[in-house]
């Protein structure tokens, strides 16, 4: 497999770009692997990469029912940040941020990680107190956080209505300068190529339809491309967690599947060079390199496995955008789509061994699984290889919900709708 470089670009330009090789092979399934990973999204692919890279385990297959990157990893609004309050989340997401910072070089694949910052707007004194507390917790842990006044915000984000007459006046904002965005499908492709180069098999159009068992122990999977035996089976299927785990006989999990929509506007000239989130409702917006505004809001609020949403949320998100940026009210919406979200009951993820011998589970990513991709794969690979969690994911257990020891970042209770 060739390295991607400026020299390779030049050489291929002279040969009419006919010598590029596919980024990963299309092998037939082998009868047995050391590890089968179910789900070729960002988390499954990153797990495969780090299993091979960090633990020397490369007799691995990633089993994907559709095409690599066709799930949430290719459907999200691409925001990457580590601005959390609770210790378990802070340490985990900052580890992810550090992996993001070197990811393009690490993978020899440009994931277009752009540290343009994220600004959380506060619209009331109590919200400002809350954000300042979070910023202080971040700084205490060595994570960058800056409090911005309305005047500083007005200079940083022209077009934002910071006037006292605004529908939701802005009293300040918490900025994380190292946060930003990345090219979502490049992340999937980069990890896939990196894992493939180390011998991992990518099995696309291969749906897991059941599990092979020896008593309680999981010993492989049945798929639309035949039976595959495995010493270990790791499930990372995001919004399909309930459906896939049911095939293993696990029919009660602290996870609900919900649809979340994303929106892209027509291309504009450069209008906003950071990510802005609205504290008066739920809206996040940035501008892509092609000029489109990329934005989203709340989940639709009902359980669903459909990759499309409904008009009430479209209307709500558009009205929030127009109230923050009145000048954008006439910008045309170009595209929208939905993804199936694995919403956990406390808003935090699960990366664990079990719940059956031979089985490993990665789920519960809610709104935030894209930014978690590197750390999630890194920690899940560790957990699979060593049969125990890394300290960074030790708190992300399944049994915390039995004990009530939840990691409820927002303190909102066991309601996925609110996380
Ligand atoms: C609209 C939207 C906006 C978002 N915005 C952000 C954001 O700005 N920042 C952020 O951090 N996060 C964001 N997220 C969340 C983030 O995208 C997800 O949490 C994360 O991508 C989930 O992990 P994944 O990439 O592994 O999932 P996926 O890419 O969904 O991968 C799961 C894979 O499992 C496969 N699968 C399912 N069932 C089977 C089966 N039976 N057999 C084989 N394969 C199967 C699916 O086909 C899929 O490819 C957003 C999500 C959505 C939908």
TrEMBL record:
InterPro entries in the cross-refs: FAD-dep_OxRdtase, FAD/NAD-bd_sf, Rhodanese-like_dom, SoxB
Subcellular location: Cytoplasm
Main localization of the protein described in the UniProt heading: cytoplasm
Keyword RNA-binding recorded: no
Cofactor needs: FAD; FMN
Annotated Pfam families: DAO
GO molecular function: nucleotide binding; sarcosine oxidase activity
Assigned EC number: 1.5.3.24
Rhodanese domain mapped to chain residues: 35-79
Keywords: Cytoplasm, FAD, Flavoprotein, FMN, Nucleotide-binding, Oxidoreductase
GO CC annotations, alphabetized: cytoplasm
Similarity comment: Belongs to the SoxB family.
Entries under NCBIfam families matching the protein: soxB
PANTHER family: FAD-DEPENDENT OXIDOREDUCTASE DOMAIN-CONTAINING PROTEIN 1, SARCOSINE DEHYDROGENASE-RELATED
Protein's UniProt name: Sarcosine oxidase subunit beta
